[in-house]
Structure formats: structure tokens, C-alpha cells
Amino acid sequence: MKTTIEKFKNVMIDMYKGYPQYVYFGTFEKEFGREEAERIIHKLKNEELISVDYDIENKKYYYELTKKGMDFAIAMVNLNHSQETHYFTRVLIWFTRILVLLTFGLFVFALFQAIITLGF
Fold first, then answer.
1. What pLDDT digit, counting tens, does each position of 25-50 carry?
2. Most buried by CB count within 10 Å: which residue of 51, 61, 87, 103?
3. Which residue, among 33, 10, 6, 18, has the nearest Cα to 63 in the 3D structure?
4. How far is CA 60 from CA 6, 37, 105, 110, in A?
């Protein structure tokens, strides 16, 4: 289950990928549901992050990123990158710990083998 910020981040990254040629419709509605999407679109429009056109005939919002929206979308890309980097850093730390333990264990094993072989 994705959190709301993850859903929002994914929508903004998708809109960033198509800038400036593409006009989007239904992406917020698909992720959040109709009522919540209308509130989000309204807030983003008030903050001048997206420009919105409403098609009365099809009852759909058409939206695209503005310049401020591009800055915000780039921040979402950076957030996504930092989260992935944080995850891989944690994996590498655990991998390093395991290698240190294995190396220490092999050192102790080799030391005992040398003691046994030399007859101390």
C-alpha cells in the first residue's frame, strides 16, 4: 500500500517526464480518487504548480506543469533519488558488517589452525 506522498511523488515524476509537450488528464484521479484528486488539483492550481483546463463535455481536468511546477517536480525526483540512495546505503552497511564478521572468523580459524599445526 502506497502512502499519499508516494502516490503524489509518482504523479509529479510522471508529469515531469512529459514536460513540456504533454497535457495530462486522469493521473491524479487514478491515484487518489475523484474527490481527493479535485482537492489536490485545486491546491496545486492555487500554488501555480500546474495549469488546469476543464472540459465540460467530458467532465475531465486537463493539466500540465508550470515553471514552478517543474521546480517542484525536480524536488520530487531528488527526493526519490535520496530515498533510493538511503536504501542502498543501508544494504551496503549490512553487507560490510557481514564481510567484517566473516573476515574476522576466518582470521580466528586460521590462527587456531596455525596453533594446532605448530603444536603450541
1. 778 888 888 888 888 888 888 888 88
2. 61
3. 18
4. 24, 11, 64, 72
